[in-house]
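Notebook B, p. 112. Complex prediction, attempt 2.
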Amino acid sequence: MLTKRIIPCLDVKDGRTVKGVRFEGLRDAGDPVALASRYAREGADELVFLDITATNQKRATLVALVRDVARELDIPFTVGGGIGTVADVEALLMNGADKVSINSAALHRPELIDELARRFGSQCIVVAADARFHEPEGWQIYTRAGTHNTGRDAVQWCREAAERGAGEILLTSMSNDGTKDGFALDITGAVSRAVSVPVVASGGAGSKQHFTEVFQNAQADAGLAASIFHFGEIGIRELKEHLRQDGIPVRL
Amino acid sequence: MEIAVIDYKGGNVQSVLFALERLGCQPTLTADPEVIRRADKVIFPGEGEAASAMRELRAQGLDKVLPTITQPFLGVCLGMQLLGTHSEENDATMLGILPFEVKRFPKLPEYKVPHMGWNTLQRLRSPLFEGLGAEDYVYFVHSYYAPVGDYTIAEAEYPAPFSAAVQHKNFYAVQFHTEKSGPVGTRILENFLKL
């Protein structure tokens, strides 16, 4: 039986892992390769690396990191953050990334999704969507690391991304990110029902029960979190044992 | 041991090379028919789209070379599908080493496509899976599948059974990413290297 996936997310800047709370106030949370290997041994199903480096050296640094991680890691990993061109994606895939996630560039020019899917296959193209709840408009999509409101409806954008060839949607609720109050069940469920590709829920995980809820009540295919794993608040194995007791299929 | 990993610009081969290096091997990435024929083992990784992969194989003449290989051969993911006769993915004509036709997963409400993630292997029947059982998980990412047939040596379910691995003589192939399937995948690669 296909299992639900648990995915630690490593935000990396200049080759080090950091995690922001509500995209601000970064704290150093360790060496990416060491963390990646630890998570793989503890039973993580995949890893996501989000690169938030803003310098000109970004691409070279990221390619080197991907190579180091791929050399060590025997589980799949996704790389994202500021990826904008076919050449960027090619460099990352050729150096060992299993999937690449695109965000702002896809919203700026949605045809990029079609081009990447045709060139590399949908299975390695993830569209990352950052959504924030507004009254009365509902869930809207943000770009540029959560600083710019596109005014686009979250469900409608995720559906378009999947139709254009995204093989997976990584949906982050900015309204929940860093709160530890739980995933955004309403928008996660709405997106999951609207698209035929897997949906990774992100933002707000603070307890084991939050993962149970996002799998049982919002039909997420995977749950992603950062700080609760980096600071040892929840172990991957104990989380998966909890999920199995709740009747959710997991790899143990 | 000489291990040839076939290079046909088909996508991510680096993960396969790294997995072999973790096992202490020094694989050669190559499209040279002589190097491929000389190797002790041949690994045929694959990712991406079937029709363009076949175009690349034909451009390099590998569509003629691969069916003549006599040493142990391991296809991975798209490298398994390409061994069949035909794929529904852009109506591609494939190598025809095995008699299966590759089909797209049907649209079902509870079953997302691609089939992406960790799934168990069922009904294992090959030395490739020595030491493994029904509790062992491997990592899949694919939208197309090979049906179960006489050639099937392991099955997985999504929700219907499909071929997770196939074999015909020296040609072995797995639909999942053995290079990305943790210790279970490593064991399968080790078993293949012992064939």
